[in-house]
Amino acid sequence: MITQKIFQKELVALDEWLVTYLTKTSTEPVLLESMLYSIQAGGKRFRPLLLMGTVDFFGGTIHPGVIQVAAALEMIHTYSLIHDDLPAMDNDDLRRGKPTNHIQYGEAIAILAGDGLLTEAFQMIGESLDLTEQEKVWLMTGLAKASGTKGMVGGQVGDLAGEHQQLTVEQLASIHHRKTGALIEYAVGAGTYLGLPQENFTCSNHQIMEDMTCFAQHLGLAFQIKDDILDVTGSEALLGKRVQKDQTLEKNTYPALLGLTGAKASLTNELASARKALQTVESLIKTSSNHYLHQLIDGLEEKDGE
Amino acid sequence: MITQKIFQKELVALDEWLVTYLTKTSTEPVLLESMLYSIQAGGKRFRPLLLMGTVDFFGGTIHPGVIQVAAALEMIHTYSLIHDDLPAMDNDDLRRGKPTNHIQYGEAIAILAGDGLLTEAFQMIGESLDLTEQEKVWLMTGLAKASGTKGMVGGQVGDLAGEHQQLTVEQLASIHHRKTGALIEYAVGAGTYLGLPQENFTCSNHQIMEDMTCFAQHLGLAFQIKDDILDVTGSEALLGKRVQKDQTLEKNTYPALLGLTGAKASLTNELASARKALQTVESLIKTSSNHYLHQLIDGLEEKDGE
């Protein structure tokens, strides 16, 4: 879905850092193995790429502090997948083409691996040698907010509560905004915060943050609609996870509520809105329209034959 | 076990703050209800009391920032109980005299309530209006470290891994130090940090921090040995949880490894060491030996007839 041609070096640094950090902080071999199993399962690193892309968009450097925040983001995302896959939740046995964490290590270790990744994400930012105290507070607090009861955890509860009942598109969008949107919004927000020169964090920069949030919200919703569509049209071999699970679980999805054509139209709309918001910022900071962030938008478009 | 005669006002403020904060940040009623169910289940608030007692020991004020850190500590402790009680872990159905969270709300909500409490603990400190940026970083990072893979989560994995096999007393102490000790150590460490005037955080204060850590480590181990003993000698009615579970699960405990008499002797030793470390600090800061922290130590002593 996403081109990863750029930021190759940074993605390697990210992966190395994740292994180094988790190895350093772990006291139990099976816990480390279980955390690394899911971290190294071949995720697309969409959120880290979005964070790094946003820093780069504003002319910032992908310094070690940025890599560490990207790593924390990926750890939070990975923990959420491990817990979502549990039998009591979505009961998935396949993820990224491999058995899910609890199938491989048992439920107890899977729960604790999730708890560990979630907790270590905060410690990693807090102990960074490459971020200021002010940045750490902003980044840790925002990460908690995006992941917590008003964000990802709340969205997952809404998702479970909505099973077996018909929601409106607005209700579904509210779940998606929290369940997947909040972390995507954080990736863009943190990238903007770290990428914009902070001494210039004045009124016009607050406008930029607002427009970038708008971009992130449309991108996040597009990301989830695309995921909903792929659950219907994609193949298990290509996606590495069970397909048509949403229908089995009677989940509310865009294709279920709007039909496949309607869902695809919504996807196109959200991507257009994301593009427009990004262009607004481009005109403010006077940069060209061929940045990598556009590739991320383009990567979510429906291709012929998909 | 613990006298709560002092800090009554502060404990009321703590409880009110927990409700206010969680209500404000929640978007899903069932999630809020589930989190509050466990938060309000009648816990002894040992960790908050220890934190507030330590701040007070150094002549500090129990200002709203201290209450917020105490609340974050209690949220982390509560999350750990919810997850530990899950069927895949210790499979407990009774806690503080009430059905455990997953019995009441189902496993999915219980897992998410735990995730929510863990995450919100960080947001709560990060958003505090009563702590400096520097304090927030210290407090959030330390909390993550105490709760994470080198601390509580690692200890829980060690505890599970040790079931059905005989450990040495040293191995068991290592599990206890992480599983329950790390958060208790954090309570004392954070209390020392917040209670000691920070402009004076010089060499002698580093010595004080070391001695307080020593106090906390002995107190934490004593706390867990007492818990092990009560699982053998206590009644379900008194403790509000199932007793003699450790034996059923073939858990390593002090009574299992040393017999009841040996466990009681270890408890006495640990309490004596905790008292001695506290007295060392008292001689450094020239204060009397009748502070509330001594009551906390005394409260863990074995009484006749117990």
CATH class of chain A: Mainly Alpha
Please name the fourth-level CATH homologous superfamily of chain A.
Farnesyl Diphosphate Synthase
Number of strands of chain A: 2
Radius of gyration of chain A: 19 Å
CATH architecture of chain A: Orthogonal Bundle
Task: Tell me the series of helices and strands of chain A, N- to C-terminal.
Answer: HHHHEEHHHHHHHHHH
Helix content of chain A: over 70%
Largest chain interface and its two residue counts? A-B, 50 and 50 residues
Q: What gross morphology of chain A would you assign?
A: globular
Mean pLDDT of chain A: 92
Strand order of the largest sheet of chain A: 1-2
What fold name stands as the CATH topology of chain A? Farnesyl Diphosphate Synthase
Ends distance of chain A: 11 Å
The unreliable regions of chain A are: none
Please work out how many helical segments of chain A DSSP would assign. Answer: 14
User: How many structural domains does the protein architecture of chain A include?
Assistant: 1
Question: Which strand-content bin applies to the residues of chain A?
Answer: under 5%
Quaternary class: homodimer
Secondary structure category of chain A: mainly alpha
What profile does the largest beta sheet of chain A have?
2 strands, antiparallel
